[in-house]
Write a structure and sequence with these properties.
Layout: E1 5-10, H1 21-30, E2 33-38, H2 43-55, E3 60-64, H3 76-85, E4 91-100, H4 108-125, E5 129-134, H5 137-144, E6 154-156, H6 163-171, E7 175-178, H7 189-194, E8 203-205, H8 231-242, H9 246-261
Helix pairs in contact: 2-3, 4-5, 8-9
Length: 265
Protein backbone atom coordinates (compact mmCIF):
# COMPACT_ATOMS: atom_id res chain seq x y z
CA UNK A 1 0.00 0.00 0.00
CA UNK A 2 1.65 3.25 -1.11
CA UNK A 3 -1.00 5.89 -0.47
CA UNK A 4 -0.27 9.55 0.12
CA UNK A 5 2.78 9.96 -2.10
CA UNK A 6 4.00 13.49 -2.80
CA UNK A 7 5.23 14.34 -6.31
CA UNK A 8 7.66 17.15 -5.49
CA UNK A 9 8.00 18.35 -9.10
CA UNK A 10 5.44 18.32 -11.90
CA UNK A 11 5.13 20.93 -14.64
CA UNK A 12 1.33 20.83 -14.67
CA UNK A 13 1.00 24.25 -16.32
CA UNK A 14 2.70 22.81 -19.44
CA UNK A 15 0.49 23.10 -22.51
CA UNK A 16 0.50 19.32 -23.02
CA UNK A 17 -1.94 19.17 -20.10
CA UNK A 18 -4.34 21.83 -21.44
CA UNK A 19 -6.93 19.32 -22.66
CA UNK A 20 -7.08 17.02 -19.62
CA UNK A 21 -5.37 18.71 -16.65
CA UNK A 22 -8.19 17.91 -14.20
CA UNK A 23 -8.26 14.25 -15.26
CA UNK A 24 -4.46 14.06 -14.86
CA UNK A 25 -4.76 15.30 -11.27
CA UNK A 26 -7.61 12.83 -10.58
CA UNK A 27 -5.62 9.92 -12.04
CA UNK A 28 -2.71 10.83 -9.80
CA UNK A 29 -4.93 10.84 -6.70
CA UNK A 30 -6.44 7.49 -7.70
CA UNK A 31 -2.89 6.08 -7.91
CA UNK A 32 -2.08 7.32 -4.38
CA UNK A 33 -0.27 10.52 -5.41
CA UNK A 34 -2.34 12.76 -3.17
CA UNK A 35 -0.23 15.93 -3.24
CA UNK A 36 1.71 17.55 -6.06
CA UNK A 37 4.13 20.49 -6.06
CA UNK A 38 3.56 22.36 -9.33
CA UNK A 39 6.84 23.75 -10.65
CA UNK A 40 7.21 27.40 -11.56
CA UNK A 41 10.01 28.04 -14.06
CA UNK A 42 9.30 31.54 -15.44
CA UNK A 43 7.38 34.61 -14.31
CA UNK A 44 4.26 33.47 -16.15
CA UNK A 45 4.45 29.78 -15.25
CA UNK A 46 5.02 30.67 -11.59
CA UNK A 47 1.83 32.75 -11.63
CA UNK A 48 -0.03 29.98 -13.46
CA UNK A 49 1.26 27.38 -10.99
CA UNK A 50 -0.05 29.46 -8.08
CA UNK A 51 -3.46 29.89 -9.73
CA UNK A 52 -3.69 26.15 -10.35
CA UNK A 53 -2.67 25.38 -6.75
CA UNK A 54 -5.33 27.74 -5.40
CA UNK A 55 -7.96 25.76 -7.34
CA UNK A 56 -7.16 22.64 -5.28
CA UNK A 57 -6.00 23.73 -1.83
CA UNK A 58 -4.30 21.04 0.22
CA UNK A 59 -3.76 18.91 -2.88
CA UNK A 60 -1.68 21.20 -5.09
CA UNK A 61 1.11 23.56 -4.02
CA UNK A 62 3.55 25.51 -6.15
CA UNK A 63 7.03 26.94 -6.48
CA UNK A 64 7.95 30.36 -7.83
CA UNK A 65 11.19 30.88 -9.68
CA UNK A 66 13.13 31.35 -12.89
CA UNK A 67 14.70 28.30 -14.55
CA UNK A 68 18.20 28.94 -15.92
CA UNK A 69 16.78 28.64 -19.46
CA UNK A 70 14.87 31.90 -18.74
CA UNK A 71 17.67 33.64 -16.82
CA UNK A 72 18.05 36.29 -19.55
CA UNK A 73 14.60 37.57 -18.54
CA UNK A 74 15.69 38.22 -14.95
CA UNK A 75 15.19 41.84 -13.89
CA UNK A 76 14.35 43.88 -10.77
CA UNK A 77 10.70 43.85 -11.88
CA UNK A 78 10.71 40.06 -12.18
CA UNK A 79 12.41 39.78 -8.79
CA UNK A 80 9.62 41.88 -7.31
CA UNK A 81 7.00 39.65 -8.97
CA UNK A 82 8.64 36.56 -7.47
CA UNK A 83 8.85 38.19 -4.05
CA UNK A 84 5.10 38.82 -4.19
CA UNK A 85 4.34 35.23 -5.20
CA UNK A 86 6.54 33.87 -2.41
CA UNK A 87 4.29 35.55 0.16
CA UNK A 88 1.34 33.38 -0.95
CA UNK A 89 0.43 30.46 1.32
CA UNK A 90 0.25 27.95 -1.57
CA UNK A 91 3.82 28.77 -2.69
CA UNK A 92 6.15 26.45 -0.79
CA UNK A 93 9.60 26.92 -2.39
CA UNK A 94 11.81 29.25 -4.42
CA UNK A 95 12.66 27.84 -7.85
CA UNK A 96 13.11 26.08 -10.08
CA UNK A 97 16.46 27.87 -10.08
CA UNK A 98 20.08 27.02 -10.76
CA UNK A 99 22.42 26.50 -13.71
CA UNK A 100 22.12 24.63 -17.00
CA UNK A 101 25.29 24.56 -19.11
CA UNK A 102 23.97 21.62 -21.16
CA UNK A 103 21.57 23.78 -23.18
CA UNK A 104 22.90 27.29 -22.48
CA UNK A 105 19.58 28.85 -23.54
CA UNK A 106 20.66 31.87 -21.47
CA UNK A 107 24.25 33.14 -21.24
CA UNK A 108 26.15 31.68 -18.29
CA UNK A 109 26.67 35.08 -16.65
CA UNK A 110 22.90 35.68 -16.73
CA UNK A 111 22.30 32.22 -15.26
CA UNK A 112 24.71 32.82 -12.40
CA UNK A 113 23.15 36.21 -11.65
CA UNK A 114 19.57 34.88 -11.65
CA UNK A 115 20.61 31.96 -9.43
CA UNK A 116 22.33 34.24 -6.90
CA UNK A 117 19.34 36.61 -6.81
CA UNK A 118 16.91 33.76 -6.16
CA UNK A 119 19.07 32.34 -3.36
CA UNK A 120 18.94 35.80 -1.77
CA UNK A 121 15.15 35.74 -2.11
CA UNK A 122 15.08 32.36 -0.35
CA UNK A 123 17.06 33.83 2.55
CA UNK A 124 14.64 36.78 2.77
CA UNK A 125 11.41 34.75 2.64
CA UNK A 126 12.57 31.74 4.64
CA UNK A 127 11.40 29.20 2.06
CA UNK A 128 13.45 26.25 0.78
CA UNK A 129 15.00 26.19 -2.70
CA UNK A 130 14.10 23.85 -5.56
CA UNK A 131 17.39 23.50 -7.44
CA UNK A 132 18.28 22.66 -11.04
CA UNK A 133 21.79 21.78 -12.18
CA UNK A 134 22.97 20.24 -15.42
CA UNK A 135 26.59 20.13 -16.60
CA UNK A 136 27.42 23.02 -14.26
CA UNK A 137 28.31 21.27 -11.00
CA UNK A 138 31.40 23.29 -10.01
CA UNK A 139 29.80 26.72 -10.54
CA UNK A 140 26.58 25.48 -8.91
CA UNK A 141 28.44 24.42 -5.75
CA UNK A 142 30.54 27.60 -5.72
CA UNK A 143 27.44 29.85 -5.75
CA UNK A 144 25.33 27.72 -3.41
CA UNK A 145 27.88 26.86 -0.72
CA UNK A 146 28.27 30.34 0.84
CA UNK A 147 24.46 30.73 0.93
CA UNK A 148 23.31 27.31 2.10
CA UNK A 149 23.57 27.92 5.85
CA UNK A 150 21.24 30.93 5.53
CA UNK A 151 18.59 28.99 3.56
CA UNK A 152 16.00 26.85 5.35
CA UNK A 153 16.57 23.81 3.07
CA UNK A 154 17.37 22.84 -0.52
CA UNK A 155 16.63 19.93 -2.84
CA UNK A 156 18.72 18.91 -5.84
CA UNK A 157 15.72 18.39 -8.12
CA UNK A 158 15.95 15.67 -10.79
CA UNK A 159 19.40 14.56 -9.69
CA UNK A 160 21.34 12.93 -12.55
CA UNK A 161 24.96 13.30 -11.43
CA UNK A 162 27.66 10.84 -10.40
CA UNK A 163 28.67 9.63 -6.92
CA UNK A 164 31.04 12.56 -6.28
CA UNK A 165 28.36 15.10 -7.21
CA UNK A 166 25.85 13.27 -5.02
CA UNK A 167 28.14 13.40 -2.01
CA UNK A 168 28.89 17.09 -2.64
CA UNK A 169 25.15 17.75 -2.46
CA UNK A 170 24.65 15.58 0.61
CA UNK A 171 27.59 17.20 2.41
CA UNK A 172 25.85 20.59 2.02
CA UNK A 173 22.71 19.17 3.60
CA UNK A 174 20.67 19.03 0.39
CA UNK A 175 17.78 16.67 -0.12
CA UNK A 176 17.90 14.67 -3.36
CA UNK A 177 14.98 14.48 -5.81
CA UNK A 178 14.86 11.34 -7.96
CA UNK A 179 12.78 11.16 -11.16
CA UNK A 180 12.09 8.58 -13.86
CA UNK A 181 15.69 9.10 -14.98
CA UNK A 182 16.41 6.14 -12.69
CA UNK A 183 14.04 4.03 -14.81
CA UNK A 184 16.24 4.44 -17.91
CA UNK A 185 18.44 1.38 -18.44
CA UNK A 186 20.91 3.52 -20.43
CA UNK A 187 21.17 6.97 -18.89
CA UNK A 188 20.00 5.98 -15.41
CA UNK A 189 22.52 3.21 -14.74
CA UNK A 190 24.80 5.38 -12.56
CA UNK A 191 21.84 6.65 -10.53
CA UNK A 192 20.63 3.08 -9.98
CA UNK A 193 24.08 2.22 -8.60
CA UNK A 194 24.41 5.20 -6.24
CA UNK A 195 20.83 5.85 -5.06
CA UNK A 196 21.42 3.68 -1.99
CA UNK A 197 24.05 6.25 -0.89
CA UNK A 198 21.17 8.67 -0.23
CA UNK A 199 20.03 8.48 3.41
CA UNK A 200 16.30 7.73 3.59
CA UNK A 201 15.72 11.00 5.45
CA UNK A 202 17.14 13.01 2.50
CA UNK A 203 15.31 11.32 -0.38
CA UNK A 204 12.30 12.66 -2.30
CA UNK A 205 10.65 11.46 -5.50
CA UNK A 206 9.16 13.33 -8.44
CA UNK A 207 7.97 12.86 -12.01
CA UNK A 208 9.07 16.15 -13.62
CA UNK A 209 5.97 15.57 -15.77
CA UNK A 210 5.46 15.89 -18.73
CA UNK A 211 9.15 14.92 -19.08
CA UNK A 212 11.05 11.74 -18.19
CA UNK A 213 8.35 9.12 -18.70
CA UNK A 214 9.63 5.98 -16.90
CA UNK A 215 10.96 3.56 -19.52
CA UNK A 216 10.20 0.62 -17.22
CA UNK A 217 6.41 1.04 -17.44
CA UNK A 218 4.85 -2.25 -18.56
CA UNK A 219 1.91 -0.53 -20.20
CA UNK A 220 3.37 2.18 -22.39
CA UNK A 221 1.10 5.24 -22.82
CA UNK A 222 0.08 6.23 -26.35
CA UNK A 223 2.19 9.39 -26.08
CA UNK A 224 5.57 10.08 -24.46
CA UNK A 225 3.92 12.46 -22.00
CA UNK A 226 4.65 11.68 -18.38
CA UNK A 227 2.12 12.43 -15.64
CA UNK A 228 2.09 12.33 -11.84
CA UNK A 229 0.30 8.97 -11.58
CA UNK A 230 3.56 7.38 -12.81
CA UNK A 231 5.28 8.42 -9.57
CA UNK A 232 4.42 4.92 -8.34
CA UNK A 233 6.81 3.49 -10.95
CA UNK A 234 9.62 5.83 -9.83
CA UNK A 235 8.95 4.61 -6.29
CA UNK A 236 9.10 0.97 -7.35
CA UNK A 237 12.43 1.31 -9.17
CA UNK A 238 13.99 3.42 -6.40
CA UNK A 239 12.95 0.88 -3.75
CA UNK A 240 14.33 -1.98 -5.83
CA UNK A 241 17.67 -0.20 -6.38
CA UNK A 242 17.93 0.65 -2.67
CA UNK A 243 16.91 -2.89 -1.65
CA UNK A 244 14.18 -1.41 0.53
CA UNK A 245 10.43 -2.09 0.55
CA UNK A 246 8.18 0.25 -1.42
CA UNK A 247 6.35 1.04 1.82
CA UNK A 248 9.58 2.09 3.55
CA UNK A 249 10.55 4.40 0.69
CA UNK A 250 7.01 5.74 0.35
CA UNK A 251 6.75 6.62 4.02
CA UNK A 252 10.21 8.21 4.11
CA UNK A 253 9.80 10.32 0.97
CA UNK A 254 6.35 11.53 2.02
CA UNK A 255 7.59 12.50 5.50
CA UNK A 256 10.57 14.28 3.93
CA UNK A 257 8.36 16.23 1.53
CA UNK A 258 6.03 17.24 4.36
CA UNK A 259 8.97 18.48 6.41
CA UNK A 260 10.75 20.18 3.53
CA UNK A 261 7.75 22.06 2.10
CA UNK A 262 5.94 22.60 5.41
CA UNK A 263 2.93 20.47 4.40
CA UNK A 264 0.43 19.12 6.92
CA UNK A 265 0.95 15.37 7.55
Amino acid sequence: MTDHLVDIGANLTHDSFDDDREQVIERAADAGVTRIIVTGSSGQSSQDALALSKSRPGQLFSTAGIHPHHASDYSPALQATLAGLLREDAVVAVGECGLDYFRNFSPRDAQRNAFQCQLELAVECGLPVFLHQRDAHNDFIEILKPMIDKISAGVAHCFTGDRDALHDCLSMGLYIGVTGWICDERRGKTLQEIVSDIPLDRLMIETDAPYLLPRTLHQKPKTRRNEPMHLTEVLRVVAEAMQESEMTVAQATTANAERFFGLQP
